[in-house]
Protein 1
Amino acid sequence: MELATSRDGTRIAYDRRGSGPALILVDGARGHRAFNPHGAALADLLQDAFTVHTYDRRGRGDSGDTAPYAVEREIEDLEALIRAAGGRAHLFGMSSGAVLALDAAAHGLAVESLVLYEPPFIVDGSRPPLPPDYAVRVGALAADGRRAEAVEYFMTAAVGLPAELLGGMREDPSFARMEQVAHTLAYDAAVMGGTMSGVPLPPHRWASVTAPVLVADGGKSEHTFADGADALAAVLRDVQRTTLDGQTHDVDPEVLAPVLRDFFAH
């Protein structure tokens, strides 16, 4: 484990492996180095061509969590990682991590190119939007020590899981690990902003992004992800759009790795 120091003094824990151009993997909600085997597998598959950095986003795993939270602090965390990686980096963003990665590029960080997999936008009526008070409510539940309830609320309101499946989830050992980072669910809600409310994406939020972007979704995912990916591609400048056949939101690293390898090589 290595540590990068963000602008506000927060220590951000990361691992690096391999050699070659720098690549930083940006997790979505709940993900961190100890809770994302897919991320570790992806890093292993790419380390022959890239210096791959996996890290714990602020408030997760071995990273610090200086209050108050703001999305800008997470962008500064990525800035510190890019500096530690040599000054420039490719970014791969998964789910809400894709939105954070794109925001970092929009803020002028030294991003070579980006691959974004299924940013969880809700831009139409293909599924219910998040409740207007979702961010406040999920944050309050965690702050009150009701971490299990916060996770359940995330799983039903944000992920769209039927409530009747929650009982079985509580029995899985992974549920306790999700509880440990329940307070960061509000952070991801802040990253998403109003982009899960069932309305079109803001046309200018990422207008300053000049780096090449590949937006991908899975062919077996809910149609909401394809709609969101199409909407994002429509507002970016230098963009490619692809669908990975047979994949869901839980994308197979063996399928994903060649896509990243090819795109980042150009």
Note: The chain has ten helices and eight strands.
Protein 2
Amino acid sequence: MSMAVIVTGSNGFIGSHVCQYFRDKGVYVIGLGRSPKSKAIVDEYAQIDLDSDVIFEYKPSRKIDAIIHLAADMRADPHCVEVVQANCTGEQRLLEYCEKNEIKVLMQLSSLPVIGRPKEHPITENHPLCPKTVYHCTKVMEELLADFAYRNKGIRTASFRISAPVGSRMNEKTIFPTFVRSALKGDDIVLYGKGTREQNFIHVDDISQ
């Protein structure tokens, strides 16, 4: 029997690519999301909001080898308690679900801006933290909760601090596809403000791998 994984946030930009990557590898993929129907190609799907305890009642059809946690409330509101509740409580629910169901691995996405503006290069795990928003603060807490579960419960965890993802099916209104469309048409690429913003990008296929 092939390996089976749960992918949270499977309906999202990154989630849909991760689901596709695993299925191409012959892995049985179970998607979790808030939508009634799956937008990604998966073997099984469940509408579950990690804001609730419903996750503890979920019984997948297969023994799960790993959870790939991609779901997140990404609102940039600097005083949004819902972001803290959704991300931090959802993380802990997933870790407890792993413990109760003997799921040995949880891998998740964090975010490079948890370090703020880089103070040194290369950037290592020892770089000081200076989260830019409440959302990034929750990512730090998710990393800590995952590390705690590893040390105390034996769940193998990994948190990947990624930069801005790009690739097919991304939001067409964001800056990267906007610049690409202008370049393909031979139009000027317009920079607003002082043009001092710097941005690192990572392709969604590299994230999936």
Note: The radius of gyration is 18 Å.
